[in-house]
């Protein structure tokens, strides 16, 4: 055996590998001079050597010559792209691979070889124009012959062209910036929500064609047409459609100009557009679009996609459109007007808030709109809102709870809806001032339906469990008496208390570091300063200059500071003076003696109020005025605040104890490693 470790083989190695004698290998070198791997030089050796991988591929393509079958190693995209190193970029090489696989798939020869494929390249213009475009004849004649032969040989031996291309596409998208494709769970949901049809499906932002292919494979349409502004994506979609034998036509164009789909209609329109993509404001390009629901604001062009999708709907058609979650709640005048028109005219059937981080390349939360023709006589009087933010991505498809809820709503079985997950909301309610389409603003939190007895049982159980755990370290909690109120107070909101004059709400400002008229400098409050387990004076603090005429908000002792810590709303009583309220923070100044600030802070911190976080990616904003609170008798508030403060103090103590225990353990480990001291527990408790 050869002792080579450099990936090369001698003729003797080849003979042993193929189970033939040495003279047969010499005969192969002469007989197949055009395809047999070329000899390579290794160091100062004069013996002919050959690249092992090239020999193995050649034997795999010529199994009738060897004495024993050669097991084919898995082929990777990188291995084929590497064939064109220095000749084509990775993107250009991937384009060539797609064209080559399309040609290989079109050939029916039993013994397909690279030479046979190359011989027929010039005749591809006899096929359909689309196939000729896939062939790219000029490309074949400009590449090095040896590279083309090597690549074709690898691709022919790799397996069914469609399977190879789909695997290569997934590998290419993972290794490049091409991450705009629709995630599989989202694609599954869009197709599941689509009705079956014998008509045509359009994709107005088709990308590499995955959504169209999935829709046709599931019987949602008999044919499809797609548009994408990036020519490379459109070419990939053409190749995928050809290899899948799908009736799909792809166009490289801008959907907002007069594309090949201009004024055409479809039974199903699917759109998963690039987020925050700007479209031209040139009226000569956009005048063909009838913005019948309202002209999209220049700062929120995403309002164009739902309207464009609706404009392409045939009678009775359905559009499935993906957007950012913020589109459901934007309160600027133009956004509210467009959203209300879509609702009022019956174009919106359902809206689904999706799990966060569904796209790996953006933190922007997403939503799916199910849209139909506006102004239909038999349109529904309710809209289905689904809060799927807590679902796992693999629960979004055909057999998941979203489709079940949607089918129940369509069939009129609204009584079967889990109203903490999906709820049918009357159109008139959604048209109310400041109403939004955010599902979690309408779905019913399970705690909202608890009776007083349920609350009593839940609170006692939780408190006792905490007390028992603390008692194991000698720090139990005092007895908690829980009494159900005979007449619970009516629910209210922070906005309602402010309107009644019971409180004043102050918003933090983003301060300039210096103001010309400033006479004093004050510390700027941040979330780091207001966390319960920190001391403000022990942190690095930015100071800002402010004066009575500036927009600074100076916090006074006793005010409630409301802020976001991670994904949770927090509120605490501030005890220091002379601080400027920082950005993304708000404070509440209690003006009514019938309100206990500690009780109000506890109510604000309830998880139920997390539904009022902003829908954007950063989630730094919150609509404090909508936070739900109650106002029981002041004596109830006082005792409740006492219990809440007690538990909060214990929690703060435990966190501090955990930090100190961690530090002690670290010191013990460090001392053990030093070998300089000995320790002994004398009186373990």
From TrEMBL:
Give a single Pfam family match.
N6_Mtase
Q: Which InterPro entries match?
A: DNA_methylase_A-5, Restrct_endonuc_typeI_TRD_sf, SAM-dependent_MTases_sf, Type-I_RE_MTase_Subunit
The GO terms describing molecular function are: DNA binding; N-methyltransferase activity
Record-annotated DNA methylase adenine-specific domain positions: 163-392
- Its Gene Ontology biological processes? DNA restriction-modification system
Q: Which domain of life is it from?
A: Bacteria
Q: List UniProt keywords, sorted A-Z.
A: DNA-binding, Restriction system
Q: Please give the name of this protein.
A: DNA methylase adenine-specific domain-containing protein
């Amino acid at each position: 055996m050869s002792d080579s470790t450099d990936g090369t083989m001698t003729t003797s190695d080849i003979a042993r590998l193929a189970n033939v004698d040495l003279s047969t290998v010499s005969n192969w070198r002469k007989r197949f001079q055009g395809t047999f791997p070329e000899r390579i030089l290794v160091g100062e050796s004069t013996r002919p050597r050959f690249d092992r991988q090239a020999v193995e591929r050649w034997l795999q393509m010529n199994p009738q010559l060897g004495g024993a079958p050669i097991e084919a190693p898995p082929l990777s995209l990188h291995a084929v792209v590497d064939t064109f190193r220095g000749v084509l970029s990775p993107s250009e090489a991937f384009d060539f691979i797609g064209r080559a696989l399309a040609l290989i798939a079109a050939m029916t020869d039993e013994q397909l070889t690279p030479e046979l494929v190359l011989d027929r390249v010039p005749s591809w213009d006899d096929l359909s124009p689309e196939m000729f475009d896939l062939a790219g004849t000029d490309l074949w004649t400009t590449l090095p012959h040896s590279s083309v032969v090597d690549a074709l040989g690898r691709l022919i031996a790799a397996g069914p062209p469609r399977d190879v291309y789909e695997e290569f596409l997934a590998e290419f998208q993972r290794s490049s910036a091409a991450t705009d494709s629709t995630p599989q769970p989202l694609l599954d949901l869009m197709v599941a929500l689509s009705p079956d049809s014998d008509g045509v499906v359009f994709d107005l932002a088709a990308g590499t064609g995955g959504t169209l292919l999935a829709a046709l494979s599931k019987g949602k349409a008999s044919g499809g047409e797609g548009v994408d502004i990036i020519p490379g994506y459109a070419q990939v979609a053409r190749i995928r459609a050809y290899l899948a034998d799908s009736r799909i036509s792809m166009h490289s164009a801008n959907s907002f100009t007069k594309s090949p789909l201009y004024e055409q209609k479809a039974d199903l329109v699917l759109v998963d557009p690039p987020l925050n993509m700007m479209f031209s404001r040139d009226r000569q390009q956009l005048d063909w679009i009838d913005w019948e629901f309202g002209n999209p604001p220049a700062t929120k062009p995403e309002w164009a996609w739902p309207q464009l999708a609706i404009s392409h709907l045939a009678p009775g058609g359905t559009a499935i459109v993906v957007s950012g979650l913020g589109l459901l709640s934007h309160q600027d005048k133009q956004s509210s007007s467009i959203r209300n028109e879509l609702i009022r005219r019956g174009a919106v059937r359902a809206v689904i808030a999706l799990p966060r981080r569904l796209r790996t390349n953006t933190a922007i939360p997403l939503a799916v709109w199910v849209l139909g023709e506006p102004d239909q006589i038999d349109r529904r009087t309710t809209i289905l809102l689904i809060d799927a933010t807590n679902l796992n991505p693999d629960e979004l498809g055909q057999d998941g709870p979203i489709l079940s809820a949607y089918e129940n709503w369509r069939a009129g079985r609204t009584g079967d809806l889990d109203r903490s997950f999906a709820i049918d909301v009357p159109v008139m309610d959604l048209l109310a001032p400041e109403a939004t389409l955010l599902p979690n603003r309408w779905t019913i939190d399970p705690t909202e339906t608890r009776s007083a007895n349920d609350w009593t049982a839940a609170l006692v159980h939780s408190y006792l469990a905490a007390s028992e755990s603390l008692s194991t370290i000698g720090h139990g909690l005092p007895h908690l008496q829980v009494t159900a109120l005979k007449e619970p107070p009516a629910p209210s909101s922070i906005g309602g208390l402010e309107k009644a004059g019971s409180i004043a709400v102050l918003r933090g400002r983003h301060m300039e570091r210096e103001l010309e008229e400033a006479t004093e400098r004050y510390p700027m409050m941040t979330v780091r300063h207001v966390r319960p387990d920190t001391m403000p004076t022990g942190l690095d603090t930015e100071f800002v200059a402010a004066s009575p005429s500036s927009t600074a908000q100076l916090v006074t002792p006793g005010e409630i500071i409301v802020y976001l810590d991670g994904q949770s709303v927090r509120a605490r009583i501030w005890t220091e003076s002379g601080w400027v309220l920082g950005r993304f923070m708000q404070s509440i100044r209690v003006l009514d003696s019938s309100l206990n600030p500690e009780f109000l802070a506890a109510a604000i911190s309830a998880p139920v109020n997390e539904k009022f976080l902003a829908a954007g990616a950063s989630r730094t904003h919150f609509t404090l005025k909508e936070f739900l609170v109650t106002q029981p008798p002041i004596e109830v508030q006082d005792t409740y605040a006492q219990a809440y403060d007690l538990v909060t103090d214990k929690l703060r103590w435990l966190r501090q104890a955990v930090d100190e225990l961690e530090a002690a353990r670290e010191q013990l480990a460090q001392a053990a490693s030093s070998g300089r001291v000995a320790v002994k527990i004398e009186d373990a408790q």
